[in-house]
Amino acid sequence: MEQLLDEFALFSDDELCAAFMSLDICSDCDVGLRSSRVPRVSLRNGLYRGILPDEFKDLSWVEEQICAINVAACKIVRLHGSSNPENPFVLYGNTCAHPMNVVETAKVLPRAPTDIAGRLGVIFVGPKKYKPKALGDIFRVRRHKVIAFLRWLCAHNKLYSDLSVDFAIFDQYPEDGPLPGLDSRIVHREWTCTCRT
Prior knowledge:
The chain is α/β, with parallel strands linked by helices. It folds into 2 domains: 2-45, no CATH class; 54-190, no CATH class. The protein has helices at residues 2-5, 27-34, 61-66, 113-117, 143-156, and strands spanning 73-81, 91-99, 108-109, 120-126, 140-142, 164-165, 176-178, 186-190. The strands form 3 sheets. It has a 4-stranded mixed beta sheet, with no helix packed on it. A two-stranded parallel ribbon has the order 3-6. It is globular. Pfam families: DUF6570.
């Protein structure tokens, strides 16, 4: 195994003794190492992004998608409102990510709102029509935050170094609000409680 790891691991140290080490390798990495290739998802490829600066730790998943080079899944979000009258705007739910073929790798970023909304479906389940402000931060886009994040990615991630940034696309996003086009992606399923009290 040491021969397989030579030149392909993140670091090597002749002082390490294999008798005192245990190494678990996923099948993808094992195939790469046995073929004398650097595994495509290894740290050795220089793709480790490190720790995000504090200013980006509160990015919404929509904001991350706007800056994504590849999008490999569409998302179906199922939400239902709180039954507690004191918290009428609290939403609960889950998201299912459905894999899809990567049709294209972005050459220009950010992605347009129609591109993001086109891979999204939202199903509201409940006895009342949803209120748009109930969406809260789930689908929030902050233009200034996305611009700063994309600039940071271009400066700190080699995959973004050759991408073009079309700043005119940012004008399609709100300063701070829900993803444009979201309303057309929402389905409301009403139900009436038939429980006996």
